[in-house]
Specification:
Elements (H helix, E strand, L loop, with lengths): L2 H14 L1 H25 L1 H13 L5 H21 L3 H20 L15
Helix pairs in contact: 2-3, 2-4, 3-4, 4-5
């Protein structure tokens, strides 16, 4: 068997296993959100910490949103693990992450301005 046919065979076999990478990624991300949401829903200290984070970020209705966000993480994480309604779960989790970035993470970024001068 020459090198070219070996490479072609290897790539064909590799292509047949591409589903495994998608499965591992989906389960890993789903597990991350599922465990995070579970902690915030069922551990009072974590729920209080989440509520305080929302208060600090000036998110309206922090107690309600803490439960809502935690429930989205928990349920959509479970859906990802199971592989059910994956597009819907991804959209909802993406929305949660975009709001989290917009309300908390962006404020903590320390970077110079594009022109290299301080802005007042």
């Amino acid at each position: 068997m020459n090198a070219m046919s070996w490479a072609r065979t290897f790539l064909t076999e590799l292509h047949a296993w591409q589903w495994l990478g998608a499965l591992v990624a989906r389960v890993a991300v789903g597990l991350l959100f599922f465990l995070s949401g579970r902690g915030k829903l069922f551990v009072p200290e974590r729920r209080a910490q989440m509520r305080q984070t929302l208060i600090d970020a000036r998110v309206p209705f922090p107690a309600l949103n803490a439960v809502f966000v935690s429930a989205v993480e928990f349920s959509c994480g479970l859906l990802l693990i199971l592989g059910a309604l994956t597009p819907v779960a991804c959209v909802l989790l993406s929305g949660v992450m975009i709001v989290a970035l917009a309300t908390t993470a962006i404020r903590s970024i320390k970077a110079p301005s594009l022109l290299g001068c301080e802005l007042a």
